[in-house]
Design goal:
The complex is a heterodimer of chains A (304) and B (223).
Chain A lengths: L9 H18 E3 L11 E4 L2 E2 L13 E2 L2 E4 L5 H8 L18 H14 L6 E4 L22 E4 L11 H8 L16 H4 L17 H6 L25 E7 L19 E4 L16 E3 L8 E2 L3 E2 L2
Parallel strand pairs in A: 8-11
Antiparallel strand pairs in A: 1-2, 2-5, 3-4, 5-12, 6-7, 8-9, 9-10
Chain B lengths: L1 H29 L1 E3 L2 E5 L2 E8 L2 E5 L9 E18 L6 E10 L3 E9 L3 E9 L7 E8 L2 E13 L6 E9 L8 E5 H10 L6 E23 L1
Classes of the chains: A alpha+beta (304), B alpha+beta (223).
Chain lengths: 304, 223
């Protein structure tokens, strides 16, 4: 049965939808089960240079190759299936896993790869202290784990996004509309952050006591609008670990992997606890690799 | 007619505005904050937080003394409340604690961003400093303060979970019912001379803190 569209509005609407469909087909291919390696929730992000002027990498000559990325943060259900435990403070199968360190995220990637018959992307040496993991210049030694984690080049397993991959995807890739947050200039459209993630909408200044009292917390993944690529929660909900040590931004290079050394691993996207500016695609946060909190999670990527 | 009408109108307006102002002031002074809230009252920023138990914040004398506030609490796990400025900085903070009981500390309290720092200048009571690093002493406004630095690892902040520092200047010798001044710039300069740097100022209040199931009250005024 057909429903007749109002005359006078159908043609431009059809054109808009057609144009959107063409753009989506051209730039974002939904992950297909061909080869059986890529889960349905993954999206192929077509590579290129940064189109979003709000990005740190815009105009810097950085090129990102194609990659797959999960539309959602790693959920607690996914985490439990792989790791057999649940460190999260705010429980719920469909909520993002949180209170995970960077090392936890690395372990998850490898264990999930093995579970699904993929080659682990990381080599984890738990006995050798990583000389590239430096003391915090202000606070001293915060990370007493310091596993040496290196990349198993050519492996097809799960991995953390690099900072450049994360920011490219959050910025909308080639479909970018130039938003400040991932998918909108209005943060409430796309992100769970301190004002909107509790019992009531909070106003005034950021205040941890007020946030705790308001029961601010994580929310089910995918419950805000997606960005231009169809990715959810790139801004807000939980902050997302990236592979990189935080350091100077790369320029004029393809697929940068961050600094050789550092004292904090990059997180991006802001979380339910943070203020709005931390949810901007350009904001660069960092935390010691062994650090964790109830607003710290991650998502994973795959090679094409 | 027009003239009389004009005069009558002005008088009416004056009365109207006077009534409105009085009502507004009464409403502002009658304001009650239960357990949790932030906002402004008579031009001053206020904040109240309660973790378990109950607390109530009012502004009984704020019509006369805009910086006045009162808090009562009962069986609180933790309660922090006070009145001050939405943006702190170098200033002379005047205060008078008219009455207080059942509290742990009354401090000039605030925080800065970039770097993220939470600071206390304690005027009544005693800070818990057992796990902090003693950095020396300083004198300001006629009192000697002990300075401490404390690292907060993986604790809540405006950026989310973060590692940051608390700066603590502990005196605690103020008396009930007397006027005092805290020249905050002296403390900030002292901290900076010790390498304890501050960032951009966020709110700064004269905060009363009580915990461990305490019950009590405070009535204080800042200016």
């Amino acid at each position: 049965m057909h429903v007749k569209e109002p005359s006078g509005t159908s043609t431009p609407m059809k054109k808009s939808f057609l144009l959107m469909a063409v753009l989506l087909v051209a730039n974002v291919a939904l992950a297909m089960p061909a080869g059986g390696a890529v889960p349905d929730s993954f999206i192929l992000v077509k590579g290129g240079t940064f189109k979003n002027k709000a990005s740190n990498y815009y105009g810097k000559g950085v090129v990102v190759s194609d990659f797959y990325i999960d539309k959602y943060d790693v959920t607690q259900k996914e985490w439990i299936e792989v790791m057999g435990n649940n460190p999260s403070q705010f429980k719920g199968d469909n909520r993002p896993v949180e209170t995970v360190s960077w090392y936890d995220a690395i372990e998850y990637c490898n264990k999930r790869s093995i579970k699904e018959g993929l080659q682990p992307y990381y080599r984890i040496d738990r006995r050798s202290k990583d000389p590239n993991n430096q003391p915090d210049p202000k606070f001293g030694e915060l990370d007493h784990i310091k596993w040496t984690v290196t990349i198993n080049e050519g492996a097809n397993g799960y991995r953390l996004p690099t900072e450049a991959q994360w920011e490219y995807a959050a910025s909308g890739g080639q479909l970018s509309q130039g938003y400040t947050y991932s998918g909108s200039d209005n943060i409430d459209d796309v992100a769970w952050y301190w004002r909107n993630s509790g019992d009531n909408t909070l106003t005034g200044w950021w205040s941890w006591p007020a946030i705790a009292q308001n029961h601010d917390q994580t929310q089910p993944v995918g419950s805000k609008k997606p960005n231009e690529l169809g990715l959810y929660d790139m801004s807000g909900n939980v902050r997302e670990w990236c592979w990189d040590w935080r350091g100077s931004l790369a320029s004029n290079v393809a697929d940068p992997r961050g600094s050789q050394s550092g004292f904090g691993k990059v997180w991006k996207g802001g979380g339910w606890m943070g203020v709005a500016f931390t949810a901007a695609v350009a904001f660069r946060g960092s935390l010691a690799a062994n650090g964790s909190g109830p607003d710290q999670g991650f998502r994973v990527v795959l090679s094409p | 007619m027009q003239a009389s009408s004009f005069v009558a109108s002005r008088v009416q307006k004056s009365i109207f505005f006077a009534v409105m102002a009085t009502c507004s002031a009464m409403a502002a002074n009658a304001q009650t904050v239960q357990n949790n809230g932030t906002g402004t009252n008579n031009g001053y920023y206020y904040s109240l937080y309660t973790s378990s138990g109950s607390a109530s914040m009012t502004f009984p004398e704020a019509g006369t003394y805009p910086g006045n506030y009162a808090i009562t609490w009962s069986g609180v796990g933790d309660m922090v409340g006070g009145k001050g400025w939405s943006t702190g900085g170098n200033m002379s903070v005047g205060y008078n604690v008219g009455s207080a009981s059942g509290y742990n500390t009354i401090s000039v309290y605030g925080w800065t961003t970039n770097p993220l720092v939470e600071y206390y200048i304690t005027e009544l009571g005693s800070l818990y400093t057992a796990n902090a690093t003693y950095k020396g002493s300083m004198t300001s406004d006629g009192h000697s303060y002990s300075t401490y630095e404390h690292l907060q690892v993986n604790q809540p902040s405006i950026e989310g979970t973060a590692t940051f520092e608390q700066y603590l200047d502990d005196w605690g010798g103020a008396s009930i019912g007397s006027n005092y001044t805290v020249t905050t710039g002296n403390h900030f300069s002292h901290w900076q001379s010790l390498g304890m740097n501050l960032g951009s100022f966020n709110y700064m209040i004269l905060a009363t803190e009580a915990y461990n199931g305490a019950s009590g009250e405070v009535n204080a005024t800042v200016w």
